[in-house]
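Just scan my protein:

——
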Amino acid sequence: MSTVKKYLSLVKFAHTIFALPFAMIGFALGVKAVYQQHMTVGEIALKLLLVLICMVSARSAAMAFNRYLDRHFDAKNPRTAIREIPKGIISPGSALRFTIINCVVFVVVTFFINSLCFILAPIALFVILFYSYTKRFTALCHLVLGLGLSLAPIGAYLAVTGVFSLLPILFSIAVITWVSGFDIIYAMQDVDFDNSENLHSIPTFLGKTNALHTSVFLHLVSAAAVVSAGVYGDFGILYWIGIAVFVGMLIYQHLLVKPNDLTKVNIAFMTANGIASIVFGILVIADVIIF
């Protein structure tokens, strides 16, 4: 159990709450789309299990690889020096092996889902692993992170239906802009360190004030995407209550963080976004089931 806890900490397993609810939204939409094909409860449960394994393994691979690749930067940064690899809790080699194992698990499981997911698996892995390199050469690294997490609703929908559809794509647009926006806020903590190490981010490129403005814009796009999904999908009242909570949490986190006051960044990052994702996900899925 001690070893398990170390690896759960390495990959920040608690942060799964950001993308997992959107994956479940995609899954619920997929089940509803193929409802007339009379999937049995057992078939739905098996598909859900496979999707969850893919979700956890892909995210674990991405986070472990990020920690492995950034270990030298993490050791220099006072904020991240307490992470598992810099502190010697987990060796770099172990983190890399953990990454490879999770990549293999992800690809193998997609084989048992359907042929399209299996074919697209290497592309998905490339996106989520490539993010770890982006801070070295582009300030758009936040968008690449958002892109990686935005694969969750589309991927879960594809796992059930085997086809693309506009509705899960709208949710993916919401995810990429939502995640990119709050990652910009989170990156504001490391502006001085990133500048000293020639690392790139929106805050280092635009400054903290303009970075916050960029984050606001991205979150406006995210809000527009979930509203568009609500209209296009003809959802019921629970969905719109979920939107109110989601947008409310977006506004709340921007009220917490100021360019000259980053003391509440963690509340904005974890609490506000965690509530936004979980409550929105539960209400959307309930709406899909009821209506």
User: Anything to note?
Assistant: The two ends are 42 Å apart (CA to CA).
